[in-house]
Amino acid sequence: MKYLRIKNTQNMNAYLEGTFNLVQLEKELSNPSPPFFFFYLDNEATGYVKVNTGGDAQSEEMGEETLEIESVYIKTKYQKQGLRNRLLNKSIEWHWKMW
45 and 51 in contact (C-beta within 8 Å)? Predict the structure, then answer.
């Protein structure tokens, strides 16, 4: 497993700007695999989960039948309402339907 060592605010800002920017997000969303699952309440996107399955998308080679949860994000005002669990369950259900 890879971990980024962040020693100061400057390193953290560089990491965030390189990882969480519009160009990177558009690149990831335009790739049909791996999927994102979004959660909406009252027509507002409240969170999402990004999953990886076997092949090139996983951070480590783990086999075709594996599921990796890469990231889960819930807007602050919607946290602690069970949305994370619902997104994770949706990801697992989707994965099992594939197998």
Answer: no
Contact predicate 67/34, CB 8 Å: no
Residues in contact with 51: Cβ distance below 8 Å, sequence separation at least 6, in sequence order: 34, 35, 36, 37, 67, 68, 69, 70, 91, 94, 95
CATH code of 32-98, in short, is 3.40.630.30
Q: What is the pLDDT at residue 59?
A: 63
Q: Which two tokens stand for residue 82?
A: 């069970």
The SS3 of residue 80 is coil
Burial 61-94 (b: 16+ CB within 10 A, else e): eeeeeebbeeebebeeebeeeebbeebeeebeee
Tell me the pTM.
0.65
Mark the ranges of the chain whose per-residue pLDDT is less than 50: 1-3
pLDDT score of 1: 39
Number of other CB atoms surrounding residue 11 within 10 Å: 12
